[in-house]
Design brief:
The protein has 233 residues and is an alpha+beta fold. It is built from five helices and 13 strands.
Length: 233
């Protein structure tokens, strides 16, 4: 092998070793709250401080693949200002919803006492295979090109309590790390140790799936549906 060929081969080898040794976590996007509204802590343009206290989010998976998201947040600060100013409330709610993992559509909000309630939908948070709805958003997407740098950041709760459930007639199967019953999955801040910034991360090995309660071979169809999702291809 000629010297120039040897040098080129060595350069390729070093590049491959460098890619393999690069820390994947450092290349990913920053961690993302599942519930952006529940992680609310900001100053509005008019100087109003809006801070979330205790919170809960419920995500409902529908048979047509759509999802609805409801966040209920007890406000530690800013409740009176949001109640008195509808445009401010809408702006804060919409911006906070976009801070989460979903692509929120049709965002609606209201104040009930000191509680901010935000509802929205995301038509693109699932994939449907064999009549099974696969909820893919809890699993960070990797780069589509092999060896590419990047990818979505890790997911953390944001909320004190997160529930993923199916619509009427559907039940959810999924991660063994979640509690709950009656065809739903529940994660809470008490279920894991927070990091130095108080974030509780959700490490989901299998995408949750919604199946019809009277469906045929639900476990087998759920297994195949997960294999067919784009995140696992």
């Amino acid at each position: 092998m000629r010297p120039r060929t040897i040098a080129a081969a060595a350069a390729v080898l070093l590049l491959a070793v460098g890619i393999a040794a690069a820390p994947v976590a450092d290349a990913r996007a920053p961690p993302t709250p599942i519930c952006g509204v529940c992680d609310l802590d900001r100053t509005a343009p008019d100087g109003t401080s809006v801070v979330a206290g205790e919170s809960a989010q419920t995500i409902t998976l529908h048979g047509n693949g759509s999802t609805t998201w409801v966040a209920e947040v007890d406000l530690a600060a800013g409740g009176d200002a949001l109640a008195a100013n509808e445009s401010l409330r809408r702006a804060v709610a919409s911006e906070a919803a976009r801070d989460g993992i979903s692509d929120p559509r049709d965002v609606e909000s209201r104040i009930d006492g000191d509680t901010l309630i935000v509802e929205y939908r995301d038509p693109n948070a699932t994939e449907r295979h064999l009549g099974v709805v696969v909820f893919t958003e809890l699993t960070p997407a990797a780069p589509s090109v092999p060896f590419a740098i990047g990818g979505e950041g890790a997911r953390y709760l944001g909320a004190d309590r997160l529930t993923v459930r199916g619509a009427s007639g559907w039940k959810v199967r999924g991660d063994a790390g979640a509690g709950g019953s009656d065809g739903r999955l529940v994660w809470t801040r008490d279920g894991a140790d927070p990091d130095d910034e108080g974030r509780v991360f959700v490490d989901v090995d299998r995408d949750p799936v919604a199946v019809e309660e009277d469906g045929i071979l639900p476990a087998q169809r759920a297994w195949i549906a997960r294999l067919l999702t784009s995140d696992t291809l």
